[in-house]
Amino acid sequence: MSFQTIFDIHQSLKINNRRMVGQQVARSGYITVAQYLTAVPWVFTVTPHAYLFYPNSREIIQAIDNKDRQLPEAISFASTNLSWFTTNRGTVTTSTLNGAPTANTQTLALTSNGTFKAGDFLQVGGYVYKVTADSAGSSVDIHRPLIGSPASGTSLILGSACTFNVVAEVCPTYTLNPMTNGAFVQWDSPFVFREYIT
Amino acid sequence: MTTINAVTGSQINHAEFVKLTVGIAETVYTFCNAAAPITVGGITFANLGALLNVGDVQRDIKATSDDMTISLTGIDPTNVGIILGNDIKGSLVEVWRGFFDSNNQIITTPTTQFFKRYQGIISSVSITEDFNSEMRTRIATCSIACSSMRRILENRLSGVKTNTNNWQFIYPNDTSMNRVTEISNQYFDFGSPPLTQTQASETTVTMDSGGDSGGDGGGG
Known about the structure:
Radius of gyration of chain B: 29 Å
Distance between the termini of chain B: 48 Å
Order of helices and strands of chain B: EEEEEEHEEEHHH
Number of domains of chain A: 2
Structural class of chain B: mainly beta
Order of helices and strands of chain A: HEEEEEHEEEEEEEEEEE
Number of helices of chain B: 4
Number of helices of chain A: 2
Number of strands of chain A: 16
Largest sheet of chain A: 5 strands, antiparallel
Radius of gyration of chain A: 20 Å
Largest interface: A-B, 25 and 21 residues
Oligomer: heterodimer
Strand order of the largest sheet of chain A: 1-4-16-13-6
Strand content of chain A: 35-45%
């Protein structure tokens, strides 16, 4: 528990999963849009809790120091405080890839035992995707190109069971504000976590 | 004329593809910015990780001599190895732009929407390091400067120098340039009597064959 703790007790969470897109508006008012194909990594900006009591938080801080901006960590949103973020609204509980998907595809052929709703989360090949439209379960559209080349029959991880493998792009330093028998930890900036795509 | 059908609509989905053919062994390195490897025309372009930037490519109606820079991440020692390879200079660089359909597959109808943007050879390479001790960050970038084939041809020297060594390298038995060294930098006032007496260091045999009278050979 290091970065996971920061997520669990965050004060605010900003999520960036925007694609790389260029836009130009002509003098006539027409707009041309071009997407530059990328992996569209998840980026989380987490404002940490401002009143961690240092004597009780040394273990957490040391775990963060150990990871620093170098080592990744799998972040889960399955806890009671965070499961609202990834809990699926569809009825599916098990699903596997039906056939090997084509490279960079945004449509997955599945064998599922239920439905997906738009905004549901699924994880395949270690990377997390959002479902873009309601689906009966045999074919789902995902919000970004499929990363890597998962094999046919690969089991999907669904909903709150999904984990985001992230590395700290910004790992703030902290200031200790003394108080009785200890100090409060004041982080100098928000944490920024970027999906670790390898 | 090349027709790029993919840009006729208002929605465009594209990526860049780079191929380096390095050295005499012609080792091929490929990069693209997609999420998964893409195979086009038998070439599989590796995804992720290496490609940072492709510099501007000048596009003119007339042929121009344009240079371009490709940047690769220097954090990955593999790329540093490519840069420091013995035969990197002079290696072939090709850059394409590919256009995708709504499912991120290269458009193949009516024609494959995959177009070469640039071809040149590597003229120089560099590795730059931004070491920020205050921020405790280190960023390394491998830059490959490429010259277009037109630039190469512009700067190309061709022909043969008219001195003894160069001339006889090609024509070993031809002595016609033997006196170039002696007469180079000499002032000749053609038509006037010589100001000083000169004597050739080698005797040139002149064959008088009819009307033409032979003279001292040489030229420069």
